[in-house]
Amino acid sequence: MINQGYEVLGNLRDQKNMLKRTRTRMLNFLNTMGLSNTVIQMVERRASEDKYILIGGMGVTVFVILLLYIYVL
Description:
Structural class: mainly alpha
Mean pLDDT: 91
Strand content: under 5%
Shape: rod-shaped
Number of strands: 0
Largest sheet: none
């Protein structure tokens, strides 16, 4: 019975260690996902800002070309 008790205790320790590793992996995964979501949001915000900069730059370029066209003719 004592040997069986030691085996049960050993199994419980193994299960405890397995649960600790699983918890650590899950926390690492969730932290990575949180970081990934943050990075994705930053990229999407940057893409929308770049779109406005592109449209503004195209407008300024067209305006300058029209001014040059008017003054040259």
